[in-house]
Amino acid sequence: MQPATILVVDDEPLIRWSLTERLTAEGYRVVEAETAEGALAKHDEGVDLVLLDYRLPDGDGLSVLKRIKERDADTLVILLTAYASVDAAVDAMKHGAYHFANKPFNLDEVAILVEKALETTRLRREVRALRASQAQPFGFDRIVGESQALVTLKTLLQKVAASPASTVLLTGESGTGKDLAAKVLHYNSSRAAKPFMNITCSALPEALLESELFGHERGAFTGADRQKRGLLESADGGTVFLDEIGEMVPGLQAKMLRFLEEKSFKRVGGSADLHVDVRVVAATNRTLANEVREGRFREDLYYRLNVLPIELPPLRARPDDIPLLVNYYMDTFNTEFRKRLRGVEPGAMAALKAYAWPGNVRELRNVVERAMLLAEGPMLTVGDVPAAAAGLARLTEQVALPAAGIDLEQLERSLVVQALERSGWNQTKAAGMLGLNRDQIRYRVEKFKLEKPS
Question: Which domains, from first to last, does the chain contain?
Fold first, then answer.
């Protein structure tokens, strides 16, 4: 490991020499400067900590401090001065100084101060690296697919991530990837450096869920032997993901509505209002409008959440994305399981595309994982993937396979042409005949270069 680099800035040679000797003996690399301009030039070469005299021949240390912080807000600066005053110390701290040390100083005390400052720098870098590693897996490329439905979804997520919107509602069937979408929103927003906190609203009883969300004061209930910060408080500046919000009980719905409207809440057993700045991303696989009509969900909370609704499409609505997803998961599990499977046999892939995927992307991931754990050959076959067998059965029910076999591509084209001709080339009606949506039929029209007869 490279030793930390410390920049010592002072116009007195004896002070520079004494500090350099002691810090070098402690194992640090030391560079020196005697002027403000020299300090800034040395800082550009990369340093971990600056010991900076408050008064310099060509300027004052406070000005140098400000310029260093403008260049790199994480650089720690310890100001040294023989002209200490309360006002000067307060001003220095306000502009980002780590500490303010008086001359003449004790070298042992300076060495301890330097050690603490460098430990702070190290921890900051570790936190930054950890956050970067957390954010890296959640780029927009993690949402795998090239269908029109996925392109539309990614575009909307990018717009929402860049917006200041404080409330987002993710809807869609179970397994469509709402948790992934929530993380993509967070880690590609201005809140990425702040916490991402998530909780499943159906996983905890009402009293415990309230405590987890809002926190509690000591003595608020039996067993509350200390004060506890809730998720909303812990996520200040970041994002709270409320999964399965459709199952939140009515009492908590009222408290959540108040928080969304006022950005304030009280801990359980507390009387003081706490204010935080968080983005709330809520998710549900229920149709909240129906829940409102049936009296299970507050209408006012529904409208407050539904400002920016984003619906994630089911996998069966984008079958052309299935090969991309399968290949993505195979690459992932080849690395994880140290295998070298090359892909999926064409017949198995066609069957996978025909399967209805009631569990959506989550089910597909689990199916590929299981198949790759058990597969013995270099390619996944119908026998390796139970879902493919179900899809094959569905294909068999729909089409009797001639003894000589068929050209699947030609069959697909023929079916699309027949549907278009029967519907008078009304793409919406043709899509309904084939169990497709309009985007899927449009894709096939373009794929096969079909044109309405003149």
Answer: 5-133 (3.40.50.2300), 141-313 (3.40.50.300), 315-398 (1.10.8.60), 405-454 (1.10.10.60)
